[in-house]
Amino acid sequence: MPDDLINVSYIVSAILFILGIKMLGSASTAVRGNRISSLGMLVAVIVTLTKGGLDYHYIIIGLIIGSVIGLVAAKKVQMTGMPELVALFNGFGGLASLLVGWSEFEKGGEGNWFLYSVICIAILIGGITFTGSLVAYLKLSGKVGGNAVVFPFQKFINLLVMLSAVLIGLILIIPNNVFENGAALVWALIFLALLVGVLGVIPIGGGDMPVVIALLNSFSGLGAAAAGFVINNTVLVVAGCLVGASGLILSIIMCKAMNRSLANVLFGGFGTSSSSSGTQVEGEMKALSVEDSYYVLEAAQSVVFVPGYGMAVAQAQHVVKELSEILERNGAEVRHAVHPVAGRMPGHMNVLLAEADVPYEQLCEMEEVNAIMPTVDVAIVIGANDVVNPAAIEDEDSPIWGMPIINVHQAKSVFVLKRGQGAGYSGIINTLFFRENCRMIYGDAKATISGIVSQFDE
Amino acid sequence: MEIILLLFIFVLAAFLGFELISKVPSQLHTPLMSGSNAISGITIVGALIASGQTDANFSKWLGLAALILATVNVVGGYFVTDRMLSMFKTKKQK
Lengths: 458, 94
What we know:
The complex is a heterodimer of chains A (458) and B (94).
Chain A: H1 3-24, H2 30-49, H3 56-76, H4 82-106, H5 113-140, H6 154-173, H7 178-201, H8 209-230, H9 234-257, H10 262-267, H11 290-299, E1 302-307, H12 309-314, H13 317-329, E2 333-338, H14 348-355, E3 363-365, H15 366-372, E4 378-382, H16 391-394, E5 413-418, E6 438-442, H17 445-457
Parallel strand pairs in A: 1-2, 1-4, 2-3, 4-5, 5-6
Helix pairs in contact in A: 1-2, 1-9, 4-5, 4-8, 5-6, 5-7, 5-8, 6-7, 8-9, 11-17, 13-17
Chain B: H1 2-20, H2 29-39, H3 44-51, H4 58-93
């Protein structure tokens, strides 16, 4: 295919990407939006293949292996494991951009300072995205602890590593230096980029991983755009930059939902000072048995479920749906209140509840449900913690002070389904648990709710 | 000149990206993140060109590795997003 035709087709696929992202932002068009954007990708790939002078052997092998791995992973993953899978895919994209930049460097030949700058940027951003996403994946899937890892002089060391990466990049850009010891320098640059990704993400607590993933998603877009500059390709630049910008906006929106700034999330070392914030808490945690909770629920006229990550871990969404149906038949009004940052990703809970076929009308946003909270008979908190911690609006010294929460403490009674007495993911003591109207039901959330359901059946 | 044109496109695309994502309901944040993650796999185009070089050398091997990773990102990303979104859809039709 002639070059002009290829470029025109790239414009078509860019348009499809733009329409796709636009439509992904609205519930009624989201499915079509995703398919339109995948069509754009297909156009870009096919058109690129018609470019003359390509050897197809490796291409076919690569496409087949990649498609099989991608398909199997996407089909097999549980909805609860979605956040970590997205993190992993994102890391792969970043590494691919790094390799494209590196491959172009290894080709050698004449290049100007601009080419070498964009190669360095692609390697740097791609490398940071890869290891950063990998650490996020390990933290989310629980393969390493979710706590923030902090060590002495951390910020200084991080700065030093970052600066040396930039320095090596600058040396590479300077003409004539490239062909003497360029290869060794590139290895060093790659190593440092990978190191920056690890060092940048380990001090961030697991609770903040959604923001990190959104930001790394933005990075992988910018990495692709940089790779686009390397090979002089418009569709890479456009699509990469679109993702870069939209990912940044998305991470800022998420930070706002937690009432924190992006800088605070990235450099705050949040989630390390668990004990220092433990202000005096009055009262004690009162446990409740499944049977007793049944009697309260049977008489309840209005019930609100507040799901959190614990529901995802326990795979409790289907029994929650079952219980909410029973309660409805029993004459109660049932709502599901989803906090914007509940779970490990915004919208994570919505996906799970949708998977369990919970009717759309029962899903309430935070503001909506807070307005009616004083009239609610029972609020059932399933594995959520920080998003219902009244310290956020009452204790100015609390690390989460100012974060909007679901005001379950205003409900007539609150049941908290929890595995043990420990603090939440962020390590902050939840003053809700010590309130007069709060009862703890210990145990696996799924088992507990099934227990209540069978009480109703009898 | 070509570089300037590319930079021009880059800047315009950045503004477009900022404008596209402004009022997204929070329940769509996860699918949106996953869907745009699939788009960032556009680097597959670069990987195709790198792995399709006619002389086999180190550069080409790097291209092949890039192609496999980018393909996983693209194929997996789109399918996972579609799976998530189709759950919202079936519920809406009721």
